[in-house]
Amino acid sequence: MYWLQQHRSQVGFTLLELLISIGIIFLLMSLALPSYGNYVDRTNNVLAAKDIVMIELMIERFYLDNNGYPTSLADIGYENMTDPWGNTYEYLRFDEDTKRGEMRKDKNLVPVNDDFDLYSKGKNGTTSKPFTSAPGRDDIVRANNGRFVGLASDY
User: Fold this and answer.
1) 48-154 adopts what CATH topology?
2) Is residue 45 classed as helix, strand or coil in its secondary structure?
3) Which of 59, 73, 130, 145 is most exposed, with minimal Cβ within 10 Å?
4) Residue 151: helix, strand or coil by DSSP?
């Protein structure tokens, strides 16, 4: 019986070893979670850009079929399509009633498109017309009449 008690005391982890193991696990998690969050953000940005390109193609198809741009995304069946963050995509057709203040603008406050605006409000779900403002920097935008699709901060 003495041998069994002596053997039991030598089996298992001490409290110090257990605390060190838990500390190492938390350290590894604190390094891994921000990297995973950045990966998810980049993936969502790519998905939103892909959606914008697809919607843009449908708008251009509508233009060819009807000799004009749609008045809203409902005309092409995408009024309820949401970006990866759950917000609907924003579309603004430019015509004679469109005011310059309604157009999205670059850092020089020059409109970035002259046919229509199409964008996602991005991760924060808010936006503003100039790309340089804090609410608009994370937007996924279409600029240069479709030659650029991506983060507003990269434009």
Assistant:
1) Glycoprotein, Type 4 Pilin (3.30.700)
2) helix
3) 145
4) strand
